[in-house]
From TrEMBL:
It is found in: Secreted, Extracellular space, Apoplast. It comes from the Eukaryota. Residues 1-25 form the signal peptide. Keywords: Apoplast, Secreted, Signal. This is Dirigent protein. It comes from Oldenlandia corymbosa var. corymbosa. Homodimer. The keyword Plastid does not apply.
Length: 201
């Protein structure tokens, strides 16, 4: 048998397997693109009878300089990793929350811990687990909050943060916030976009 034909067949078979895996993986994955999530919520909200509020928000996280909005409060003593995503590192957050026109309308306040002990083997990279509130201090939603409880891996382009409650206009809220990092720096500074789908009464 011609060796080149055997190699060609193996190469073709390998590529077929790779393509099948990619297609199969995509078919089983949940599409977290904000447009896809919006379609899902549009169908669900119309059947449910509750209100659906869609928000496009931005948050700036500052870990560097003399006026940070992210401050470390704890670290596992036995961990020799001094990086910003070290397992056990816990921080408090008081980031700005801006509207789509970049006007400051509130704060993102909460706490998160890096909870991936072996980030090199995690499919989506290191992840944090956090509890946050979006606190609206200006504009249409002034005095209201949205509460989030989430696992937040850093590698995916889009991350879904579950809405577990709220107050004011968003009392008894449920929904999802799709998080996308617009820009990030090695020192921990970041600009994040939130596309929020809030179901409430």
């Amino acid at each position: 048998m011609d060796t080149s034909k055997v190699i060609d067949m193996r190469f073709i078979l390998l590529w077929c397997c790779i393509i099948m895996e990619v297609v199969h993986g995509r078919n089983n994955a949940v599409d977290l693109n904000p447009k896809a999530v919006e379609k899902w919520y549009d169908k669900m909200a119309s059947a449910d009878g509750r209100k659906l509020t869609k928000l496009h928000l931005y948050s700036r996280e500052i870990a560097s300089g003399g006026n940070p909005t992210v401050v470390q409060i704890a670290r596992w003593a036995n961990n020799t990793d001094t990086g910003i995503i070290a397992f056990g590192r816990t921080v408090v957050v008081d980031d700005t929350l801006a509207s789509e026109s970049y006007k400051i309308i509130g704060r993102v306040q909460g706490i998160y811990s890096w909870t991936t002990s072996t980030p090199q083997t995690a499919e989506d990279g290191p992840a944090s687990t956090g509890v946050f509130s979006m606190v609206f201090t200006q504009g249409e939603y002034k005095g209201s909050t949205i509460s989030l409880l989430c696992n937040d891996p850093i590698f995916p382009k889009y991350r879904e943060l579950p809405v577990v409650g709220g107050s004011g206009i968003f009392r008894l809220a449920q929904g999802s916030v799709i998080e996308e990092t617009i820009s990030g720096a090695p020192n921990g500074d970041a600009l994040v976009k939130f596309t929020a789908f809030i179901v409430h009464y």
